[in-house]
Design a protein that fits this description.
Layout (H helix, E strand, L loop, with lengths): L17 H17 L9 H10 L9 H10 L11 H9 L18 H16 L19 E3 L63 E4 L6 E3 L1 E10 L4 E10 L6 E6 L5 E7 L6 E9 L5 E13 L8 E6 L3 E3 L3 E9 L5 E12 L6 E7 L5 H6 L1 E9 L7 E9 L4 E11 L1
Parallel strand pairs: 3-9, 11-17
Antiparallel strand pairs: 1-15, 2-4, 4-7, 5-6, 5-8, 8-9, 10-12, 12-15, 13-14, 13-16, 16-17
Helix pairs in contact: 1-3, 1-5, 4-5
Amino acid sequence: MTVLGTPAYMAPDGQATEQSDLYSLGCVLYETFAGAPPFAGETPQQLMLQHLRDAPNLQSLPPAARKPVGWLLEKDPRHRPANAIALLAVLQGTSSTPRKTVVGRRPIAVGAVVGLLGLAALGAIATMRLRGGNDDGEDDNPDKGAAVLPAETAATPTRTPTRGSATEPGVTPRPSTPVEPTGSPSVVATATSPPTPPTATPSPTQPAVPGALVFEEPDGAHPVPGDVVICWDASPLGAEFTMTVTRIAPTQGQPVAFKEVVDGDNHCFFGETSAQDVPFVEFRAEARDHSGALVTAKTLRYETYQSTPAGRPPQITFVSGPASAQLDEPAVFGVFWRDPDGDAATITMTVTDAVFAGTDDPLVESRDISGIPAEEQQSGHETLFGLLCKSVDPEPRTLTFVITDSSGFTDERTALFACTS
């Protein structure tokens, strides 16, 4: 078998198109956030099969990155961004949540645009990253090299509710524009001497009204937390209407209205679900014409199931902190981690060549993280460690951070740190 390209980043489409380039961009962004590509087969053939049939584990990504990266990694190229400009509009905030759109499959040279989009995506998504607080731990003070600062209690990290988020279940709209009132046809009579017959001013053109609007029926069970996708087809081309989607069960959400224009594409609406939405979630969608008259309405019930399987290891996504510090200057390291099972137990920091006062034991500091709520563990958390330089290091020391869950699964990250004069 001859494979042209890098299998870990190849789209399942089988040909080079604009959508396949955007799929490859999704693979790169996934690896940027998760530390590994979305699929990891041992051979090119295994990787190609995984791209064709396996769903990426979006729970390994920060919450704000799941939707845009998942949009790029759709198996069907028609369900990815219509083009690079459409993705850029979402990342720049001039457009809203991604929608699934049927697009033509034509080869377009977008290498340079996709490269710029990669940088834009990192900037846009990084600004939405969830940041947490530290956990309590015991105080230890070594007399050589580096010393452990007392762990301070911080406020439990919170997330600002947004429409369509798990903290305020709802829906997230596709790009929308305000609904503007339209005028009514009017006739203005003008008179002169001698009188002339009344003349009518041209009547403003009223938007076309949808002749038919059909919602796709819910199909199969949907994993939660995640998205349900409400899609519809409408005709004729050019018809305008206002779509309003409201979450109605098991909890009530705020209605979200947006303007739609029929353009021949299949339009969709993303509604986010939380871990509590089992065994079903319901949304009501209503379409109204320019006069406010109801065109159609439908209640859509989606069967759901908990998507987090047992037995998956925790993951340290990255460690932030300084590369060096001066004598008696504190250094703080943030360990960002998540556990898909929600059963993380401890995080331990070990510093090479540093010992506790009066002993030969290496410097080891542990944090008990078992009390952090499972939902927070699954979405992401930050645990802080502190060091205080007590002597100058001739060589940088290696800091090793290890996370362990109750099943014995572990993950590890290292960092270099030096105490300077």
